[in-house]
């Protein structure tokens, strides 16, 4: 394995925010305490693994009986996110709660809060960030630029949007879309009207298509006392609107990295969030940054932190919600490249583990999902290296070794 070396990082644990913290009381959940998670996908699973490492017990709620979190949690509740009785049952089994998916029903989080349970991030944060219009209005209200947009509630709004924002545009559902789901590229008004009709006049957002030079992301965490920790800015490459590769640190100037970090810090403070979140941004040719969205939870572009940083985004989430001191975001290697492993149509058996792990710079994570449907996130690998260029070339070599085959083609181990 690559020698991990400690490196001075620009990532900050802000000493200004630390002033006087000693006088404030943390409300901490002791080790051995019970964490409840709404959602049991891969993010819940990685959170549960971090929780296990720290001695916490985990319950989660998910509509699927074989959600990836199942094999690592202590207890599960199979129910829909809007099943308030089941959500409250999860609450009664937990000392503190969080969620790993922002498309859960906000009324469930409100019900938990009203029943006296502590949920981080709060229902206010969830409500603001799960609705693309509210989210962008919030971002603008604190003086940060977003993609030009127009809210679509009625057919007349389509005409107004076409005049104000123009074409080409992305029409996205205001609520419920992720990984490119619920969005379509539009080139004229007629097409926009057809899409609006086909979606039964659901609330949409009309977004200008941005000709960005890079997509950037930043993982940030804020604790109950207002202390903020930011990770390095990442460069994110999407394929078919799904994250494919995350490169850390992003190949940008210090000035741009500082600006992106400042944006994340301002959002953390103004949103009054407790927990980990990710800000996704577009970098323009003139170095201007536009915020695309805020994910109020650990994020796919932060998976590299598991292998490359002192404290992973999942450990930070636990520290933040449990009232423990935040950990260090420092990278232990100069650079890291994370590549998502997606399902294809070929089968459910992962093939090539031996070849992949033959390179000792590669860390492999598989989520234990039974069906490798096309484009489904099945795992990821992270390459640690002294330089981004080397990490990228190892990642490309490793990528060639990934595939899913039907069980009958599984190679016999000699
Ligand atoms: P989203 O669901 O908004 O995160 O979008 C998924 C991906 O689609 C983004 O990461 C971008 O690659 C692309 N995308 C989303 N919105 C825009 C936009 N307004 N202009 C250009 N590309 C976009």
Q: State the helix count.
A: 13
How many domains make up the coordinates?
A: 3
Bound small-molecule species? adenosine monophosphate
Please give the largest β-sheet.
9 strands, antiparallel
Poorly predicted regions are 1-12, 14-20
Beta content: 25-35%
Oligomeric state of the chains in view: single chain
Provide an overview of this structure.
Helix 3 (84-92) packs across helix 4. Strands 9, 10, 11, 12, 13, 14, 15, 17 and 18 form a 9-stranded antiparallel beta sheet that branches. Strands 3-2-1-4 form a 4-stranded parallel beta sheet, with helices on both faces. The protein has helices spanning 15-18, 42-53, 84-92, 106-114, 123-129, 132-141, 155-164, 189-198, 254-271, 304-308, 313-321, 353-357, 388-399, and strands at residues 34-38, 57-62, 75-78, 96-99, 149-152, 169-173, 183-186, 204-208, 214-222, 228-230, 234-239, 242-248, 275-283, 289-295, 335-342, 349-351, 362-366, 377-385, 403-405. Strand 1 (34-38), helix 2 (42-53) and strand 2 (57-62) form a beta-alpha-beta unit. It is α+β, with helices and mostly antiparallel strands and 414 residues long. 29% of the residues lie in helices and 26% in strands. The protein has 3 domains: 34-119, Rossmann fold (3-Layer(aba) Sandwich); 148-208, ATP-grasp fold, A domain (Dna Ligase, domain 1, 2-Layer Sandwich), CATH 3.30.1490; 214-405, ATP-grasp fold, B domain (D-amino Acid Aminotransferase, Chain A, domain 1, 2-Layer Sandwich), CATH 3.30.470. Bound molecules: adenosine monophosphate. Adenosine monophosphate is lined by residues 147, 170, 177-178, 180, 207-210, 215, 238, 241, 280, 292-293. Adenosine monophosphate binds next to strand 8 and strand 14.
């Amino acid at each position: 394995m690559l020698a991990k070396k400690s490196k001075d990082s620009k990532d900050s644990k802000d000493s200004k925010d630390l002033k006087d913290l000693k006088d404030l009381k943390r409300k901490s959940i002791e080790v051995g305490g019970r964490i409840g998670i709404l959602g049991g996908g891969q993010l819940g699973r990685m959170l549960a693994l971090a929780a296990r490492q720290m001695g916490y017990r985990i319950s989660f709620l998910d509509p699927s009986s074989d959600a990836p979190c199942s094999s690592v949690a202590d207890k599960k509740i199979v129910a829909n996110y809007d099943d308030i009785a089941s959500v409250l049952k999860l609450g009664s089994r937990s000392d503190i709660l969080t969620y790993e998916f922002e498309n859960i029903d906000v009324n469930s989080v409100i019900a938990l809060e009203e029943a006296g349970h502590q949920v981080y991030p709060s229902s206010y944060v969830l409500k603001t960030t799960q609705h693309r219009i509210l989210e962008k209005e919030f971002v603008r209200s604190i003086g940060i630029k977003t993609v030009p947009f127009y809210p679509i509630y009625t057919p007349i709004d389509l005409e107004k949007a076409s005049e104000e924002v123009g074409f080409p545009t992305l029409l996205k559902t205001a609520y419920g879309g992720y990984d490119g789901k619920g969005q379509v590229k539009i080139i004229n008004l007629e097409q926009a009207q057809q899409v609006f009709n086909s979606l039964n006049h659901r609330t949409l957002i009309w977004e200008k298509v941005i000709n960005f030079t890079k997509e950037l992301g930043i993982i940030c965490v804020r604790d109950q006392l207002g202390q903020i920790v930011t990770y390095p800015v990442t460069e994110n490459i999407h394929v078919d609107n799904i994250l494919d590769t995350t490169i850390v640190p992003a190949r940008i100037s210090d000035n741009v990295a500082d600006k992106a970090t400042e944006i994340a810090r301002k959002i953390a403070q103004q949103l009054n969030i407790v927990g980990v979140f990710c800000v996704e941004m577009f970098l323009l040719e003139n170095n201007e940054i536009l915020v695309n969205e805020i994910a109020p939870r650990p994020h796919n572009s932060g998976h590299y932190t598991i292998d490359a940083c002192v404290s992973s985004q999942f450990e930070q989430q636990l520290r933040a919600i449990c009232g423990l001191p935040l950990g260090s975001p420092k990278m232990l290697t100069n650079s890291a490249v994370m590549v998502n492993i997606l399902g294809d149509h070929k089968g459910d058996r992962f093939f090539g583990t031996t070849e992949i792990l033959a390179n000792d710079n590669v860390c492999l994570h598989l989520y234990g999902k039974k069906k490798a449907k096309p484009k489904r996130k099945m795992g990821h690998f992270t390459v640690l290296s002294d330089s981004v260029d080397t990490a990228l070339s190892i990642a490309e070599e490793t990528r060639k070794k990934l595939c899913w085959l039907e069980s009958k083609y599984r190679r016999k181990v000699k």
